[in-house]
């Protein structure tokens, strides 16, 4: 009883997707394997340098990266989660009653407004500007006139 | 053994193998992360087999997609080098084995004495489908949904505050 | 497929306080986003105004009957309203002294205000719902904002340490909570505490629901810093910016206590298991908190341990109300929460004066000579600490007295005696802080304090009014509390089943 029947029974309508993945795996595997088997292998020091026709690398690639990259990744994850919510909404919206459409439309509208405010904030404070650091208004960093810092005077004596 | 069980053992076993790979490649973080991708993806397949389609899609999209990007970014940002990874002391092995056996025994005792009858009722038609979740999420659970959007806004503002705001 | 989900009743009035607080946060964010100013005064003003409106709307609801709306997601009852009022007030007082402190520390990020507002809103949700999903979402909203705020002072490694510890342990506790909720859902097929208590009351305790309830208690106990789950508290309180610590100590404790009370009420049928357990937790929380506080040399750490001890006192009040339903109410606990919030925020507000320039030291020797530089703030500090000890005419005294009395009335004399003994122990370290601020002369080194600003003095005055006012008017306040109707306590079967789509006004 093993055979096509199993997969039909278990995966049902997902059988085509399974087949697609199988084909993709075979094609990708074949490409890598065949080029590895058939390709000529000439190893020269020049060929095995990092960029054969490019600049000579300076230093190691494994070093600390700026936090900006990570912020982009976090914002991407948040974006991804926001989209996933909408996806289950559109699958049901078209065939639903008018009450559902209005109510859920308002709910999703509020959701989208909050999302847009968040993204507007990210852009507006320049958190995605690559070259310059987003600063708070410089005047905020000055001590307030009433509260002159007393520590500066003492540190010199 | 039914067809369902064969498929479950296949997918579940591979997922467990992937999970083992995450720990086994401890000194090569990128390989660990790739094993985690395999594990996440196969978990998604398991969700599909249980009929929880939306959960399966979220698992693949959010976990295997986005969360993994985050993991790889962490690996990159931290600049973990293989020689920097602390080598585990060999004398921890007995403790680890005892712990593993204890955990396995606990799980086994639960499985042996488990009474599946309350859980064997069939779920309703369309259970776990995106349509069913969409139907409830935006009506009965509309308020939690809005709170979740405030939570995501907190995530955006908080990450910018921690990562990029400079004084 | 046919959609048979029902559109829930929308009751904007019940949700108004939450909505107002969230929208105030959004407005504050938009102000900072569109027109970054030279100072945050506008943001502070808008935030305070929003909190005032939210408090006013809560106050207007106080007399009304309790009801549920949004498909059982929002419960509008007196207990929840009082706790929400405490949280809104605490947040406002924290905002009063935040601005000078943040400027002094050179971290004047206006994002503090929206994040703190949203955090407050999360806490408000936790206490105004009997639906575990809402409790979880409220907890996350409260916590995630706090993780970010704790790490706000980015040039200080102790602030980073605080945020990281809080985040890692907090998400671990959240995972426990969520897993427990899932177990309980597996047993009862409901997330609504009314329905859960009904199902659990009908059947004998199963392992699934017992483990689930234990995990939820772990999650809530972490937020409340009950003793086996308290280790994060001193480090997080010490490392976070002082205004954030004050906020954390007041708002998140009030919210977690509210959620814990509602949850303990729902699993009341398991009282043979939970009551002795929580009894021991209360004993351990009071004792460990006070004993550990004795050996600290940092004011913020000491106050952190003291907040653990106070969580223990609060738990005594809760247990008393649960073990003698009908005779003892939660009024004493609610009263104690009000005075706890006022005196803790006040104490932290005064301690925030130790920031000068970018430097901030909160060791005992750092507060030396406080009374010479800031006599008003130092005087207030004495009152707050006296209230924390429980010296008469302060509200802390009446709060402890009420809880002591409640424990006796409920037949828990051992807890009452332990409470008294612990209060006596706590005198030592509170007096230590007073001694550091008053008796010992300031060293010859440079002065350690920024000058107290007018808004800090105002915050002190508000807390002072809270501490003394609640003490002087303890009688009327207690009578007006009326939290007796919080729900059928332990062992009493629930009268009416959960009615999701209709208003349930006969509570």
Could you explain the architecture of this structure?
The complex is a heterotrimer of chains A (157), B (167) and C (507). By secondary structure, chain A is mainly alpha-helical. Helix content of chain A is 59%, strand content 0%. Chain A has helices spanning 4-11, 15-38, 67-93, 98-124, 151-156. By secondary structure, chain B is mainly α. In chain B, helix 2 runs antiparallel to helix 3. Chain C contains 19 helices and four strands. Chain C has helices at 12-34, 41-61, 78-104, 112-127, 132-150, 157-188, 193-202, 207-224, 232-239, 242-266, 271-294, 299-323, 331-351, 370-373, 375-389, 395-409, 413-438, 454-472, 474-481; strands at residues 67-69, 74-76, 355-356, 359-360. Classes of the chains: A mainly alpha (157), B mainly alpha (167), C mainly alpha (507). The interface between A and B is large, with 58 and 50 residues.
Q: What average pLDDT do the residues of chain A reach?
A: 78
Total of helices of chain B = 6
Note the total helix count of chain A: 5
Q: Can you summarize the main beta sheet of chain A?
A: none
Write the topology of this structure.
The complex is a heterotrimer of chains A (157), B (167) and C (507).
Chain A: H1 4-11, H2 15-38, H3 67-93, H4 98-124, H5 151-156
Chain B: H1 3-24, H2 29-49, H3 53-78, H4 93-113, H5 130-137, H6 142-163
Helix pairs in contact in B: 1-2, 2-3
Chain C: H1 12-34, H2 41-61, E1 67-69, E2 74-76, H3 78-104, H4 112-127, H5 132-150, H6 157-188, H7 193-202, H8 207-224, H9 232-239, H10 242-266, H11 271-294, H12 299-323, H13 331-351, E3 355-356, E4 359-360, H14 370-373, H15 375-389, H16 395-409, H17 413-438, H18 454-472, H19 474-481
Antiparallel strand pairs in C: 1-2, 3-4
Helix pairs in contact in C: 1-2, 1-4, 2-3, 3-4, 3-10, 3-13, 3-18, 4-5, 4-10, 5-6, 5-10, 6-8, 6-9, 7-10, 8-10, 9-10, 9-12, 10-12, 10-13, 11-12, 11-17, 12-13, 12-16, 12-17, 13-15, 13-16, 13-18, 13-19, 15-17, 15-18, 16-17, 16-18
């Amino acid at each position: 009883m093993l055979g096509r029947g199993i997969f039909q029974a278990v995966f049902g309508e997902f059988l085509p997707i399974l087949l697609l993945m199988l084909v993709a795996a075979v094609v990708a595997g074949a490409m890598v394997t065949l080029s590895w088997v058939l390709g000529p292998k000439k190893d020269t020091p020049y060929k095995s340098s990092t960029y054969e026709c490019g600049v000579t690398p300076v230093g190691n690639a494994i070093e600390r990266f700026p936090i900006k990259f990570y912020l982009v990744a976090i914002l991407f994850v948040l974006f991804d989660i926001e989209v996933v919510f909408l996806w289950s909404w559109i699958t049901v919206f078209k065939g639903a009653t008018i009450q559902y459409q209005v109510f859920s439309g308002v709910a999703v509208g509020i959701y989208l407004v909050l999302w847009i405010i968040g993204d507007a904030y990210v852009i507006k404070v320049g958190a995605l500007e690559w070259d310059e650091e987003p600063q708070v208004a410089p005047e905020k960093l000055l001590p307030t006139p009433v509260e002159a810092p007393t520590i500066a005077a003492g540190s010199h004596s | 053994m039914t067809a369902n069980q064969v498929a479950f053992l296949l997918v579940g076993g591979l997922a467990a193998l992937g999970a083992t790979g995450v720990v086994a490649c401890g000194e090569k973080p990128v390989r660990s992360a790739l094993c985690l991708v395999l594990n996440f993806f196969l978990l998604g397949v398991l969700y599909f087999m249980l009929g929880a389609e939306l959960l399966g899609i979220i698992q693949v999209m959010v976990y295997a997609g986005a969360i993994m990007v985050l993991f790889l970014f962490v690996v990159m940002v931290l600049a973990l080098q293989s020689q920097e990874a602390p080598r585990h002391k060999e004398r921890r092995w007995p403790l680890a084995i005892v712990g593993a056996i204890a955990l396995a025994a606990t799980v086994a005792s639960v499985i042996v004495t488990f009474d599946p009858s309350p859980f064997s009722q069939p779920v309703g038609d369309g259970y776990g489908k995106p349509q069913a979740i969409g139907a409830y999420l935006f009506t009965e659970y509309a308020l939690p949904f809005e709170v979740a959007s405030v939570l995501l806004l907190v995530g955006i503002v908080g990450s910018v505050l921690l990562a990029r705001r400079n004084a | 497929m046919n959609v048979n989900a029902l559109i829930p009743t929308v009751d904007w009035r019940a949700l108004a306080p939450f909505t107002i607080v969230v929208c105030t946060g959004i407005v504050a964010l938009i102000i900072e986003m569109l027109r970054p100013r030279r100072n945050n005064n506008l943001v502070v003003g808008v935030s305070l105004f929003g909190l005032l409106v939210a408090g006013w709307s809560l106050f207007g609801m106080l007399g009304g009957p309790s009801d549920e709306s949004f498909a059982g997601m929002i419960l509008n009852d007196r207990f929840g309203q009082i706790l929400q009022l405490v949280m809104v007030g605490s947040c406002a007082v924290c905002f009063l002294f935040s601005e000078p402190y943040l400027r002094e520390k050179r971290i004047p990020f206006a994002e503090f205000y929206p994040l703190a507002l949203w955090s407050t809103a999360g806490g408000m949700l936790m206490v105004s719902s009997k639906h575990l999903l809402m409790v979880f979402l409220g907890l996350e909203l409260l916590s995630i904002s706090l993780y970010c705020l704790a790490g706000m002072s980015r040039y200080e490694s102790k602030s980073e340490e605080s945020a990281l510890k809080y985040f890692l342990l907090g998400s671990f506790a959240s995972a426990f909570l969520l897993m427990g909720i899932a177990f309980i859902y597996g047993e009862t097929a409901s997330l609504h505490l009314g329905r859960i208590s009904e199902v659990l009351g009908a059947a004998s305790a199963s392992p699934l629901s017992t483990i689930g309830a234990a995990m939820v208690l772990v999650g809530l106990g972490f937020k409340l810093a009950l003793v086996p789950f308290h280790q994060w508290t001193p480090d997080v309180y010490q490392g976070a910016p002082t205004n954030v610590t004050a906020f954390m100590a007041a708002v998140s404790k009030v919210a977690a206590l509210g959620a814990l009370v509602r949850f303990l009420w729902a699993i009341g049928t398991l009282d043979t298991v939970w009551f002795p357990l929580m009894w021991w937790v209360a004993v351990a929380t009071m004792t460990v908190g006070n004993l550990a506080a004795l050996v600290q040399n940092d004011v913020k750490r000491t106050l952190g341990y003291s907040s653990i001890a106070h969580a223990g006192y609060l738990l005594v009040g809760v247990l008393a109300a649960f073990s003698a339903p009908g005779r003892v109410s939660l009024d004493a606990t609610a009263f104690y929460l009000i005075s706890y919030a006022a005196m803790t925020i006040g104490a932290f507000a005064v301690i925030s004066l130790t920031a000068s320039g970018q430097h901030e030291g909160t060791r005992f020797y750092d507060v030396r000579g406080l009374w010479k530089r800031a006599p008003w703030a130092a005087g207030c500090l004495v009152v707050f600490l006296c209230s924390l000890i429980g010296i008469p005419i302060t509200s802390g005294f009446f709060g402890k007295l009420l809880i002591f009395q409640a424990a006796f009335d409920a037949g828990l004399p051992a807890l009452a005696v332990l409470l008294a003994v612990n209060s006596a122990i706590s005198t030592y370290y509170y007096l230590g802080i007073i001694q550091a601020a008053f008796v010992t002369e300031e060293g010859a080194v440079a002065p350690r304090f920024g000058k107290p600003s007018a808004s800090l003095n105002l915050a002190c005055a508000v807390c002072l009014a809270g501490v003394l006012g609640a003490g002087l008017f303890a009688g009327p306040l207690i009578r007006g509390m009326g939290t007796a109707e919080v729900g059928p306590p332990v062992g009493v079967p629930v009268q009416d089943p959960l009615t999701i789509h209709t208003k349930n006004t006969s509570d």
